[in-house]
Amino acid sequence: MKKSLLILLLTVTAGVAFAQTKTDSASTDSLLNSLGGSEKSEPVIATFKSTRLILSQTTETVKKNNLNFLVVHRFGDIGGTDGGGKTLWGLDNSSDIYIGFEYGVTDNLDIDFGRSKFEQLIELGLKYNILHQTSDDHVPVAVTLIGRMGLKPYSVETNVFDDYTNRFSYLAQAVIARKFSSKLSLQISPIFLRNNLPFPYIQGNEQNIFSLAAAGRLKVTKRMGIVFDYAHPFSSFRKNSTSPYFYDASGVGIEMETGGHVFTLNFSNAKAISEMNYLADTESKWGKGQYRIGFTITRVFDLNKKHKGTYK
Amino acid sequence: MKYIALILLTWFSTNQVGQEIYVCKNAKISLYSEAPLENIDASSAKAVSVFNATTGDLSFSLPIRSLQFQKALMQEHFNENYMESDKYPNATFKGKVSQKISGTQDGTFAVNVTGVLEVHGVKQNRTIPGKITVSKGVVSLSSEFMVLCKDHNIEIPQIVFKKIAESIQIKVAATYEAYKK
Question: Cα(A207)–Cα(A198) distance, rounded to whole angstroms?
Answer without folding.
Answer: 5
